Every structure is written in C-alpha cells, then in structure tokens.
Amino acid sequence: MTHIVEMKGMNKYFGKLHVLKNIDLTVEPGEVVVIIGASGSGKSTLIRCANGLEEYESGKLTVDGHPLAPKGGNQKALAEIRKEVGMVFQQFNLFPHLTVKRNIMLAPMKVKNTPETVANATAERLLNRVGIGSQADKYPSHLSGGQQQRVAIARALAMEPRLMLFDEPTSALDPEMIGEVLDVMRELAKEGMTMMVVTHEMGFAREVADRVIYIHEGQIVEQGKPDDVFDNPQNERTQAFLSRVLAH
Amino acid sequence: MDFSFQFDWQAAIDSIPFLLKGIPYTLLISFGGLLIGFVLGIFFGLLSINKKWFLRWPATAYIEIFRGTPILVQVLFIFYGLPDLIGSPINPLTAGIAAIALNSGAYISEVVRGGVQSIDKGQTEAGLSLGLSRSQTFWSIIWPQAFRRMIPPLGNQAIVSIKDTSLFSVIGVGELVRQGQIYIANTFTAFEVYFVVALLYLAITLSLSMILRFVERRGLASV
Fold this sequence. Notes:
The structure holds two protein chains of two kinds.
Chain A: E1 5-14, E2 17-27, E3 32-36, H1 43-49, E4 58-63, E5 66-67, H2 75-84, E6 85-88, H3 100-111, H4 116-129, H5 145-157, E7 163-167, H6 175-190, E8 194-198, H7 202-208, E9 211-216, E10 219-224, H8 226-231, H9 236-247
Parallel strand pairs in A: 3-8, 3-9, 6-7, 7-8
Antiparallel strand pairs in A: 1-2, 1-4, 4-5, 9-10
Helix pairs in contact in A: 3-4, 3-5, 4-5, 5-6
Chain B: H1 9-20, H2 23-47, H3 53-68, H4 71-86, H5 92-117, H6 121-129, H7 134-164, H8 176-187, H9 190-221
Helix pairs in contact in B: 1-8, 1-9, 2-5, 2-7, 3-5, 4-5, 5-7, 6-7, 7-9, 8-9
C-alpha cells in the first residue's frame, strides 16, 4: 500500500530555530490523523510542509508518490502535490473579491481547465453538501465565520483532493460556530477522506481520529489510538499537556 | 500710487477661447504620460518586491532617481539634454509625455508595491494550496484586491501629474499655462488670465476627483 504522506528524518529550521526535529511520520489512505500540542510546538509547520507551504531543510518527504526535495526543490512535484492536497486555514483565507461560488470555481477552472458550467455545478453541489447552498452568490464578508470556513472546505474539495490538511480550522471561530464546521469534517472523515488535522478540539480528536500525534518542541513524542493517548498517555510531557487541556 | 484694481471680467472672458486651445495638450500630456506611467509603475513596482536582488535593485534605483529629483529638471534634461546624446531634437510634446510617464511611473511603482504588500499572505497561501501557480495566484487573487486599494492613491497621483504639466510651459509646449503666458504677453491682463487658468485646472482636477469617487464606491461595494 502506498502511503499518502511519508516523512523520514525530516528537519525544518526557522533561521536558527530548529522547529521540526527528525520527523518520521506516515499517513495511510483514508486515515484521519489529529496532531495536538502546545502552541509553538511545530504542529502547524508540520502539516504546512505536506503541501510545500513550508520548505524543509533535510530528510525526506513524499506526498502521494511525489518526492518533494528539501529547500523548495522539485517544483514539478510541488505543483502536482498542491493539486492533490487541499488545505483549510485558521483564518479561512477566502478570496474577498469573489462570490462564494466563484471562490470554489476558481481553482478547477484555472488549474484543471474545467469548463465553467461543470465548475458551477460542482460548486453548487459542494455548497449544498456543506449546508450553505443558499449563500452561493454572496461575498464571503457577508457570511458568518462558521459559514466562511465551510465555504473554505468546499473550495478545497472542489479540486478533489486525495488528502485534506486542516490547520486549526475552528480556532478563529466563535464557540457557537465550531460545531457546524466539525460536523462537516466528521462527515468528510466518514466518507473516507484522508485527513491531517491540527486542532485543540480534543473531543473531536477522540471521536474522529484514527491516530493522535502529540508533538512537543518539534518532536513527535507520542502517537497512537485516541483512547490510548488520551486515557493512558505514556510520555510524561503528553500527560502534562493533556492534564492542562482536559482539566477545564 | 493708485492701488485701486478692477477685475476686468471682459478680459477674463475674452481669454477663454485662446486658453482652451491649451487644454487638449494638458490632457494629452497628463493622460498619455499617466497611461505609460501606470505600465511602468506596475512593471517596476512588481520588480521592486521581487525576491531576486538583481531584479529588485534596478527597480529601486529607477524609483529613487525619479522620485528624488524635481520633475522640472527631468523635463529639461529630456528636452535639452537628451538630444545631445541621441543626435536629434525631441519635440516638446514627446518630452512632456516622457517626463510625466517616468515621474509618475516612479510614484505609481510605490503605490503598486504598497497595494500588493497590503494583501494578507494568507491569500497567496490559499491560492497556492489550491494548485494555482505563482502567477495565477498573483493575477487572479492578489492583483484584483490590490488594485482596488490602489485606486485612491492612483487618483491622487493623476491629480499631481496634471498639475505638474504646468511646468512644461518652460519647454514651449502649448499647454494651458503656456497659452496663458502667450495671451498675457499681448494683453497685459495677468491677474484675470491666471485666474482663469487656475479655474480651468480646477475644473479638470475636480471632474477627475468626482469620477474617481464614483469608481471607488462601485469598486469597493462588493468587498
């Protein structure tokens, strides 16, 4: 079986700061991997490497069979990877000058030369799927945060990705809107999407993840099934982190 | 001495037909120059934020030179200086358009740079993560947003450049001020004529302001 993501001895620096240390990680098709850790631990950087938004300095990274060389090498592989990997950001990053529907149609039309009518139909289908079909012709600023994030998910799905990256998708949302976004992600997981999710939503992690990874100061210090990691953490750092986030 | 002064309305009105002949030149130099300046501004403005130093450096040099020297010196240099170099005279109209183009191009470069840099990095990341190339991301996501933010400072630059053309009376291009000078030489009605000249500039710049305000309102309505 081919791995969707394979990281081997991957190292990443911001200047002198060693942010990812010797990361070994594989993600299998259909797997939902939730990455937890304190802020600044490198968890966002880790998933941003998986679609080349961050370059890494040494080691190996292969995404869906495309080897991505360190230091931004291999632009061709990078282009292929980005077509196959969708990403959802903390701040949504919708395009404010385009309607919701145009946000979703843009990439298929530009990258895959999908005819407008087809892209339009896809956008409508995806918007219905994330429960906001009626907002298609509005501009993003007229939508609530939860709705905007659901549009962002639909936008990524329009490229029919093989892997979806979620970088703290609910951290910028008002509490009452978190649920609607997690529901969409839960559905996606159920349908078999391969997902790497950075989140602070421990309930979601426990329920949806196939595997939970705890990262501390750029190192994977513990990983396993959610019940094992949450109920019986082996590493004392994981224990300390979980006692802090689960206490309240 | 007699300080009593009568504003001679008739002299002012009589001067108008002659002065109006200068307006096509004023507009041609302004908008011809600004159009080329806009192209230069996009080109050098984008170069000035390029990661590669050998692209950035010449753009920065161009911007600093043309922002850092007076436009009067620039037009004199082009009109009187350059012919020595190229061995043939340059007509005043061409020199005027070139001066506005090069000068406004430097300022517009800065407007372009500021506009593009004001767009959140997340927009680029979103475009790239969807598989768009760098240039697709720029032209379909960053540029349309940046351009909207550039409209007010571009309008400001247009008004500055229109007024700058008045300096080109020194190279004898028959724009508004030059027409005024010629008229005054025959009638000695400086007060009235320069008053009308000023009003005509105001008419041009106010019309432009109104158009820009309209464009801005429409452009921003959707965001």
